[in-house]
Amino acid sequence: MKLQDLDIIVTAPPAPGWGGRYWILVKVTTDDGIVGWGECYASSVGPGAMRGVIEDVFERHMAGENPENIEMMYRRAYSSGFTQRPDLTVMGAFSGLEIACWDILGKARGRPVHALLGGRMNDRIRAYTYLYPLPHHDLGAFWTSPEMAADSALDCVNRGFTAVKFDPAGPYTLRGGHMPGMRDISQSVAFCKAIREAVGDRADLLFGTHGQFTTAGAIRLGQAIAPYSPLWYEEPIPPDAVGEMAKVASAVGIPIATGERLATKAEFAPILRNGAASILQPALGRAGGIWEMKKVAAIAEVYNAQLAPHLYAGPIEWAANIQLAASIPNILMCETIETPFHDHLIKGTIRVENGFITPSDAPGLGIDVDEDLARAHPFTGDGLHLQMQEDPCDYVNGNAFEGGAPAQKT
pLDDT-derived band of residue 140, with 50, 70 and 90 as boundaries? Predict the structure, then answer.
């Protein structure tokens, strides 16, 4: 069995567009006709350029290879061009293709991917969700309304979720770490207070920031929200300043989570070694793929740390997250996004029931991809999957964070 053909589909989720502006799906076919699906997570170049990178990685390092030889293909991609260091774009391309290889291997053997990774460790995976507007909420007002956030959180808890994530501390700016404005701190506290009062002890609060703050600013904000006992404080400073993140971790008393922008064990290991975070959030379509993150999970065990795979993408990466989660002892939870498009794209083959996911025993990733639906929604825009704003923090009027891909209004 050898890898033979590659097809790339860039599909755009319809409004409101949760999961990013587009998802890059890869379809890999072997010489004996087995099809594997993967997903390349958000890249720093547009989908046209990324298509070329994916094709190059496949042709250069994978075409004609036995899909079993994942370690060899990984080392080729990781070493390409005399690098042997994480290249976010190359790793994003390889990761989606690597996921497709596991899908192929599972289908060839009639076994789920987790059975090939050491077997089933977890019969249920705890799920969490970001707080999204409910149908009666105003899309513009939602992001600065503690009351609407509490309303959404209560809805999630009533559907069985035991953890909810929100990030009211804006802005999400390319200028790097900044000192939060007092309005942003007050708004963050108000969100935590309202959500905690709404859900009580039925759910954990997951506080996101997207690497927005200076070390001092992150400590200041973290200490302000600490009385509401968040389960985690996500990426409080830019992800490359490992020593500074460790200072935040030691000062705020809230578990630090990070990882959606990291790739390979080379970037995750220093986080653990320096005590910068105790919860790792790899995005499997970027971080190096399933096998590389299985290694990271093993490293995390040594440091008594847990994994909570990140998802702001489509359901193929979600399926990969679940297969990894089923096989490791130190899984905390998995992010999930429930929209009709996510569901229809994999024909309802993954379900969140009462806040938990039961890993499928179906071969491969355990999903059935609706290829026609993916092709029927091509991406035609010019933005990136996620983008940062250029404007600095507004210390006068406050800030309204709507994420790196604001909701589509139509």
Answer: confident
